[in-house]
Amino acid sequence: MVLDDLGSSLRGTLDDLRGKSRLEEDDIQEVVKQIQRSLLEADVEVDLVMELSDSIKGRALDEEPPGGTSARDHVLKIVYEELVELVGDSTELPLESQTILLAGLQGSGKTTTAAKMAWWFAKKGLRPAIIQTDTFRPGAYDQAKQMAGNAEVDFYGDPDSDDPVQIARDGLEETEQAEVHIVDTAGRHALEEELIAEIEEIDSVVDPDTRLLVLDAAIGQGAKEQAQRFEEAIGVEGVAITKLDGTAKGGGALTAVNETDSSIAFLGTGETVQDIERFEPNSFISRLLGMGDLKQLSERVERAMEETGAEDDDWDPESMLEGSFTLKDMQKQMETMNKMGPLDQVMDMIPGMGGGMMDQLPDDAMDVTQERMREFNVIMDSMTDHELEEPRSISASQVERIARGSGTNTERVNELLEQHKMMDRTLNQFQGMGDGDMQRMMKKMQD
Ligand code: GDP
């Protein structure tokens, strides 16, 4: 995607700042120009680009870099924070029963996104159903049915009906057993009155908790008008951006988000049901800026260390990549990680751990919620030193004792042990890379 170019062009400019401790106005001007160019090329709307570059310029000139911070890191931090602000928070989607309505033009990727989202919710332990109301596009029914099969989720549609509103009504009834209802609607080639009237009617019958506008990342400036029309008709709480795996620019969708005062919910990155990511602003921008570097990671660690009052050598990300990873390490890191944000974001910052590599890992490997971390901590407090050092040696009777001691249950203790194994495996995978891989990674990091 063209937004990707922002990372490499910006890094080039930022590298020119290396070694400087003070920033001149000219330096900042250059960085800002680079950002403007990249964002405009990526189809982000002019007003939005100007707003962003003004705040970056203002902050870079006004704010004193904290002691010991280089000019380059200072600017990078500001750019990062402002871009995170620009893309906004992820659309709120609680993991509970709900109804989601998908709207968008034909070909934007609604049917595909419906199946992907269903797959995503199913992975989170909820029972989803797809309701296909697109009676306009030939083949929509078969495609939706097949994709629902691939995602292994409930499906309702009626190939013989030409009444989408009735299908929506029947669909909700027929899939009562499901917890998450995802209602796919018909698109048109353009914003016709008929489409708008139809979606308004479906919206009133379905009464969704969340309305998502599905936008092709390639849409460009047209996104603004589309977003406005759907916003007027039904209201838009969130946007799903599709086809980010292609050469699409991505910026139009950001404009749409801004226009509807909504947020990004999901990113589509391919044609199969698994090619979906929940939008996470921090990790999205980190990746965009190519910030998967240890420098950033250790800065976060340092900050978190200060807050937790932990010693500097308590956690050294590089040492984590050598030697064995015990439960003691995990316990020490949990407190720090708690302060740093979700594990997957932290992992994204380790070179080679981000992007494609993360995709190969099971989703759950990174799914340690803060709540769960607190529970894990209590469990680890009930373990002996030996158990913490050699978690793989823990027997079933020890698991029972630990569960009793921590006031939890054996299931939870085993979960912790599983989690540790997964993290250990992740790190091993990293260590297992050949020297060539390592060099390529380092090179990528410097690019
Ligand atoms: P709809 O008319 O809005 O329901 O759009 P579809 O779901 O049928 O998608 C239109 C085309 O885009 C299909 O060929 C999909 O396979 C493709 N598509 C959808 N999402 C993605 C994506 O994230 N990446 C890629 N590469 N193709 C996608």
TrEMBL record:
<dbReference type="InterPro" id="IPR027417">
    <property type="entry name" value="P-loop_NTPase"/>
</dbReference>
<keyword id="KW-0378">Hydrolase</keyword>
<comment type="function">
    <text>Involved in targeting and insertion of nascent membrane proteins into the cytoplasmic membrane. Binds to the hydrophobic signal sequence of the ribosome-nascent chain (RNC) as it emerges from the ribosomes. The SRP-RNC complex is then targeted to the cytoplasmic membrane where it interacts with the SRP receptor FtsY.</text>
</comment>
<feature type="domain" description="Signal recognition particle SRP54 helical bundle">
    <location>
        <begin position="2"/>
        <end position="87"/>
    </location>
</feature>
<feature type="domain" description="AAA+ ATPase">
    <location>
        <begin position="96"/>
        <end position="280"/>
    </location>
</feature>
<keyword id="KW-0687">Ribonucleoprotein</keyword>
<comment type="subunit">
    <text>Part of the signal recognition particle protein translocation system, which is composed of SRP and FtsY. Archaeal SRP consists of a 7S RNA molecule of 300 nucleotides and two protein subunits: SRP54 and SRP19.</text>
</comment>
<keyword id="KW-0694">RNA-binding</keyword>
<feature type="binding site">
    <location>
        <begin position="184"/>
        <end position="188"/>
    </location>
    <ligand>
        <name>GTP</name>
    </ligand>
</feature>
<dbReference type="GO" id="GO:0008312">
    <property type="term" value="F:7S RNA binding"/>
</dbReference>
<protein>
    <recommendedName>
        <fullName>Signal recognition particle 54 kDa protein</fullName>
        <ecNumber>3.6.5.4</ecNumber>
    </recommendedName>
</protein>
<comment type="similarity">
    <text>Belongs to the GTP-binding SRP family. SRP54 subfamily.</text>
</comment>
<dbReference type="GO" id="GO:0003924">
    <property type="term" value="F:GTPase activity"/>
</dbReference>
<dbReference type="InterPro" id="IPR042101">
    <property type="entry name" value="SRP54_N_sf"/>
</dbReference>
<dbReference type="Pfam" id="PF00448">
    <property type="entry name" value="SRP54"/>
</dbReference>
<dbReference type="InterPro" id="IPR036225">
    <property type="entry name" value="SRP/SRP_N"/>
</dbReference>
<dbReference type="InterPro" id="IPR000897">
    <property type="entry name" value="SRP54_GTPase_dom"/>
</dbReference>
<feature type="binding site">
    <location>
        <begin position="104"/>
        <end position="111"/>
    </location>
    <ligand>
        <name>GTP</name>
    </ligand>
</feature>
<dbReference type="GO" id="GO:0048500">
    <property type="term" value="C:signal recognition particle"/>
</dbReference>
<dbReference type="InterPro" id="IPR036891">
    <property type="entry name" value="Signal_recog_part_SRP54_M_sf"/>
</dbReference>
<keyword id="KW-0547">Nucleotide-binding</keyword>
<dbReference type="InterPro" id="IPR013822">
    <property type="entry name" value="Signal_recog_particl_SRP54_hlx"/>
</dbReference>
<dbReference type="Pfam" id="PF02978">
    <property type="entry name" value="SRP_SPB"/>
</dbReference>
<dbReference type="GO" id="GO:0006614">
    <property type="term" value="P:SRP-dependent cotranslational protein targeting to membrane"/>
</dbReference>
<keyword id="KW-0963">Cytoplasm</keyword>
<dbReference type="InterPro" id="IPR004125">
    <property type="entry name" value="Signal_recog_particle_SRP54_M"/>
</dbReference>
<dbReference type="GO" id="GO:0005525">
    <property type="term" value="F:GTP binding"/>
</dbReference>
<dbReference type="Pfam" id="PF02881">
    <property type="entry name" value="SRP54_N"/>
</dbReference>
<keyword id="KW-0733">Signal recognition particle</keyword>
<keyword id="KW-0342">GTP-binding</keyword>
<dbReference type="InterPro" id="IPR003593">
    <property type="entry name" value="AAA+_ATPase"/>
</dbReference>
<feature type="binding site">
    <location>
        <begin position="242"/>
        <end position="245"/>
    </location>
    <ligand>
        <name>GTP</name>
    </ligand>
</feature>
<dbReference type="InterPro" id="IPR022941">
    <property type="entry name" value="SRP54"/>
</dbReference>
<feature type="domain" description="SRP54-type proteins GTP-binding">
    <location>
        <begin position="97"/>
        <end position="290"/>
    </location>
</feature>
